[in-house]
Amino acid sequence: MKGEGFVTVYYAQAWCLIAMLEAKNARFSQPWMSVGRAVRLVQMLGVYAIDVKGGDAKQVLPPAQDWIELEERRRTFWTAFYGDRWASILTDLPVLEFPFEFGLAEETSRFTEAFSPRGLGQISSFSALLLATKLYGHNREHLNINSPNECVENIENSEFWKRHRRLNNALLNTFLYLPDSLRLPHGIDDMNTAFVHMCIHAFSIKLHQGAIAPATKHGISSDIIRHSQVRALTAAEEITNILRQIDNVDVDLLNSWTGFCLYVAASVLIKDQQSDQILVKVSEI
User: Fold this and answer.
1) Is 219 left (phi over 0), alpha (psi -120 to 50) or beta?
2) Which domain range does residue 53 map to?
3) Cα end-to-end span (Å), the chain
4) Could you tell me if 201 and 236 are in contact, meaning their C-beta atoms sit under 8 angstroms apart?
5) What is d(CA 213, CA 48) in angstroms, rounded to the nearest whole number?
6) 200 and 278: one domain?
7) pTM for this structure?
């Protein structure tokens, strides 16, 4: 890393690690500030554009000495992207997993191809983690759109419900086309794989919770509401099942954002429990 001057990729990596530590300690806003610094550093270093041919991004770093150093720079970017999933950064970059760890070069596909059935069948656990992060970002954007053209009451033709169905299909396809190595319980020993499933289930909960509220407000069919309630509850139960399977794992090995998935699942399970108690009280009257 000689000649990198006043800033190196290690600075960005350090801020990512600080953010992970802060997240594990539930300091909430602090990780976003820390990972924000990491994002600015990777932008300054130009590692977000190392695979863009003919781009105009400023390259502060000298040429990588070998492909391993080049991959380290890629992963520094992706770690910043993963931590700061709401930042406006480019995502059309290649990713690697086990070949990098064992010192073997391998051809990879571009990130956008990972959303296709063929791409999903070839991704690694690290790539799947990024994919789940991207899906969650799409869902957040979907729920935050506030436009007069939404027409939520029109379940067939409104933009809101069209996006909901597209995201739901993407969610189902992700589970359908994951490679065997990323399926549970086969891949439960890989904490990335376990977290990917927890993250996707949390995404499912947020997606369907986002559908329940407007459906209830606009008096849409109770079948639609019940369907989303069942999907959210099923996803919450799956998160708890995954946690039971890894309950003997050292907490330090868990992903920093595992607590968020548990929080989302708990909100559904507690609400379901409260609903059952209300029904019991009503039946006793």
Assistant:
1) left
2) 9-88
3) 74
4) yes
5) 38
6) yes
7) 0.70
